[in-house]
Write a structure and sequence with these properties.
alpha+beta
């Protein structure tokens, strides 16, 4: 879906700045004029041709833009070179080359910032929006918003309505990426109202409708999403100029049908999208469509076809070095091999998927963008050096024309001697500093290498142990389910006999099997929690959330006799992974309900949930007036399979699961008190401000639904 927003947003900005719909006629006319044109006029025509070919032939667009840059340098027309660099950046973005796109945008920005603002205001706001789009795609929302707001300020100062509409739409996408749907819709609708008042703005209106549909899609309102997608599609369908946009709308419509279970329609739309992208040579889009088709065949259990499409998608993703496409292909391949009972292959691709998902928004990507910034600074310095060389040549020419300086040989000799002596002294100082630094560096490298070797040994041992545990859990979940299901079927057959004594034994045997199946489910669930990649970006209204946790206890024995209170500020919101927090609180509160009903002295059972504000973390306390526990039991309650009493039917896994889940949040569970009449559990969660949104789906689907609440022991 991000890919769709990128291309639609980019094309909408292009046409919001004045592109004509009558492209074929205009293109032919400009091609006839370009050979006869010269200087600035030729630069303008070449950049116009580059813009017109962006959607239909990105490579042709790059060729015209490069000619415009070369001609601009000969004519000393810097704005023309900046527009050419910006066009190349747009073409690279359409092809999915984000790194190259950002490099060209930064070079264009350097040129426009050094020109008179009133002359290049549209160009400057345009390139700021494009840089914001790249940062948005890489997941750096704050940086994207900074650049986009800078563009919006310029457009408002110069009353550029088309630019304002495009910027508001981009800001809406940034909020949508952070799941701030109300803010996203506010900006999208504002942008739509502006575009409706402007003439010949069908592409921008189509973009607005599509983005509004995207918000509904992200909220699982698929009927509304499909309605907006189709309205957007009607505005640009079957127009040669908008083929890229058409392909992406077809893909999104297919996604809606796929989620709704209409696999036939989904397959049709994905195939149409693939045909257009193959015609355009859009490798990133082709890889995405191939993976979409693989998912359809996987859902239909047509594993050979699914395997073929997924492998083709992976090959193409590796060719264009797209980690996002590789990650998606790895996930489909793991599911295909699991469906074919090839668990070693499935596990291999699941590990590749997890690794790709972990690194997709890691610090290495931020480092890559930092390197691009350094590259941009280097380009800027090279431009400055060219200016210095030219100034030096001018000074030398003046010196040659000045007979006084030429005749004063003695002064020149003294100056040279001074320079040589000064240079020699500087070289000696630099040489001594270099020797000292090299000695210090060698010593530090030796210590670092020794420490690294030790840490690598420890890491390898931990990795091997985790691998063995994950492999066992994964295979156990498949290998044990079959025999247990077979035994349950035999019990069912046995119960069909009319012998009451045999029926009693078969009932007892079925109860044991059910308990064994539940235990297997709990163990596999622990494996899923251990392998879960946390998404710490979801905002939760804490009081409302804790009340929903209380309501979810209504099936727990003792709930009707227990009173609850939630002491939390109505406006307090925290940001964390709701799935993991569910597991933590469900198990602790359930434990409190059971023990509050086992002892409460002269008072009725009561459980209080409260929030305590700390400097760097949130603390949630669960307090009950139950039976408490002796110290020897309190020390072991978080151990696997430990039960403090035989009065409860659980497996002793609830608090152990809670401990693993809270570690995924970077927090802790602590038993503060365990007295009769007052037991206090403390759950601490770090205060985080996270901007990443990607979350890996679980291997077995046990953690697929958020806010599940009821989690038995």
């Amino acid at each position: 879906m991000k890919y769709f927003l990128t291309i639609v947003g980019l094309l909408a900005i292009i046409f919001a700045y004045g592109q004509s719909d009558n492209t074929s006629t205009l293109t032919d006319s400009l091609i006839l004029k370009v050979d006869k044109a010269k200087g600035i006029n030729k630069v303008t025509i070449l950049n116009k041709l580059s813009s017109l070919f962006l959607s239909t032939n990105p490579q042709k667009s790059i060729e015209y833009a490069q000619q415009a840059i070369n001609t601009s340098q000969n004519a000393n027309f810097r704005p023309g070179a900046g527009r050419g660099l910006n066009n190349i950046g747009q073409a690279q973005l359409i092809q999915g080359n984000y790194v190259n796109a950002l490099a060209y945008y930064l070079r264009a920005l350097n040129i426009f910032e050094n020109e008179r603002q009133e002359v290049v205001v549209k160009d400057l706001s345009f390139v700021l929006s494009n840089i914001a789009e790249v940062y948005y795609q890489r997941g750096y929302f704050e940086r994207a918003l900074k650049y986009q707001l800078s563009a919006l300020k310029l457009q408002e100062n110069f009353h550029d309505q088309a630019g304002i509409g495009a910027s508001l739409d981009q800001i809406g996408s940034i909020y949508a990426g952070q799941k701030m749907f109300a803010k996203a819709l506010e900006n999208y609708n504002h942008s739509l109202n502006i575009h409706k008042k402007l003439d010949n703005n069908q592409v921008a209106i189509s973009r607005n409708l599509c983005n509004i549909g995207q918000v509904y899609f992200m909220q699982n309102k698929y009927a509304q999403a499909l309605d907006f997608y189709k309205k957007a599609f009607e505005l640009i369908a079957n127009q040669q100029l908008h083929k890229t946009t058409e392909a992406n709308l077809l893909e999104n419509i297919g996604k809606v049908y796929q989620i709704q279970g209409d696999l036939s329609n989904a397959l049709s739309y994905f195939q149409k999208s693939l045909d257009i992208r193959q015609e355009l040579g859009n490798k990133d889009g082709i890889s995405a469509n191939l993976n979409n088709l693989a998912e359809i065949y996987l859902a239909s259990k047509k594993y050979p076809q699914a395997l073929n499409y997924a492998e083709r998608s992976l090959t193409l993703a590796r060719a264009i070095k797209s980690r996002l496409r590789e990650k998606n292909a790895h996930y489909v391949l793991s599911e295909v091999y699991a469906g074919q009972q090839k668990f070693d292959e499935a596990y291999k691709y699941q590990k590749l998927y997890n690794a790709a998902n972990d690194s997709l928004y890691s610090e290495s990507r931020l480092k890559q963008l930092a390197e691009l910034q350094a590259y941009y600074e280097l380009e800027k310095k090279e431009e400055e050096n060219k200016g210095l060389k030219q100034a030096k040549q001018n000074l030398e020419q003046k010196a040659n024309d000045n007979s006084v300086i030429l005749n004063n040989k003695q002064l020149i000799i003294y100056a040279l001697i001074t320079v040589i002596l000064l240079g020699t002294a500087i070289l000696l100082v630099l040489y001594n500093r270099a020797r000292f630094r090299k000695s210090l560096t060698d010593e530090l490298e030796q210590k670092v290498n020794e420490r690294t070797a030790y840490l690598k040994k420890i890491t390898d041992e931990l990795t091997r142990a985790n691998h063995e545990l994950d492999t066992f859990l994964y295979k156990a979940s498949h290998d044990l389910k079959g025999p247990l299901s077979s035994l349950e079927g035999l019990c069912h057959v046995g119960l069909m006999e009319k012998d009451e004594r045999k029926g009693m034994y078969f009932n007892m045997q079925r109860d044991v099997l059910n308990r064994m199946q539940l235990l297997l489910f709990r163990i596999v669930e622990i494996g899923d929690i251990r392998g879960h990649q946390p998404d710490l970006s979801e905002e939760i209204k804490l009081k409302k959330y804790l009340k929903s946790v209380v309501r979810s206890m209504r099936r727990v024995e003792g709930y009707k006799n227990t009173s609850f209170s939630v002491e939390v500020d109505d406006k307090l919101a925290i940001t964390t992974d709701a799935e993991m927090l569910d597991i933590v609180l469900d198990n602790i509160v359930k434990n409190a309900v059971q023990h509050a009903n086992s002892y409460y002295g002269d008072d009725s059972p009561h459980i209080r949930l409260e929030h305590v504000e700390r400097d760097n973390f949130h603390e949630i306390r669960i307090i009950d007036n139950g039976s408490g526990m002796p110290p020897e039991i309190a020390e072991r309650i978080f151990e696997m399979f430990f039960r403090g009493t035989d009065n409860f039917k659980g497996f002793g896994l609830g608090l152990y699961k809670a401990k693993i889940a809270v570690s995924k949040l970077g927090g802790e569970i602590t038993l503060l008190k365990a007295n009769k009449g007052e037991t206090v559990f403390s759950v601490t969660i770090p205060k985080t401000k996270v901007i990443t949104t990607a979350v890996a789906p679980p291997v077995n689907g046990l953690l697929a639904d958020k806010h599940h609440h009821i989690v038995p022991n």
